[in-house]
Amino acid sequence: MGTGDSFLRVKLPSRRLDRRVLLLWWTVAGALALVALVASAVWIVVAEIPSGLAVAIATIAILLAVSLPPLRFRRWRYEIRQRDILLSRGALFFVLTLIPFDRIQFVETRQGPVDRLFRLNQVVVFTAAGRAGRIPGLVPSEAESLREELSRVAGAQSV
User: From the first residue on, what is the mean pLDDT of each consecutive set of 10 residues in the chain (159 residues)?
Assistant: First the structure.
């Protein structure tokens, strides 16, 4: 077995995000695909590029907008363990993040305009080096509970 094989044997975190985050990600991705579609149309008119190239760019943008959010949702998980928090995420690339409690400086909940539209919150964990991790797609009560739990076990300040 090679060194990469041990990465595949790691037990994945058990807690999942709220399913509404999938709709949120589709909305954001759809808006970006729409921008790509409009930019392609403008590009055809202004730069007189071949319409086939613009159609290809718009098609790729739409395919990514449709396919990446479900991949992200399937991979996004988190778990509070005895001494750390484990996060797994990614769509095309799989990222596994481990944040030891003794490194956490403070924890905050966030809710941007799009989060607010879907009634979701994010929990952000900071260490002395800066933002160490983020857990999106949480219902407000779960986000608040998670923030308080992380603050308590880490001895950190809750914001």
Answer: 53 90 96 89 82 84 93 94 92 92 92 96 92 94 93 70
Cβ-contact 132, 103 below 8 angstroms: yes
Task: State the amino acid at position 99 in one-letter form.
Answer: I
Q: Diameter of the chain by CA atoms?
A: 60
Rounded CA-CA distance 52/32 in Å is 20
Q: Where are the alpha helices (DSSP H) in 1-156?
A: 5-8, 20-47, 51-75, 113-117, 140-154
- Strands 104-110 and 95-100 turn out to be unpaired
Classify 71 as helix, strand or coil.
helix
Degrees (nearest 5) of the Cα angle 79, 20, 154? 25
Q: How many CB atoms lie within 10 A of CB 87?
A: 20
- Strand-pair category, 104-110 with 121-127: antiparallel
Length of the chain: 159
Nearest to 94 by CA among 10, 157, 3, 152: 10
Residue tagged 């481990």 (tokens):
98
Measured distance CA(90)–CA(121) in Å, rounded = 19
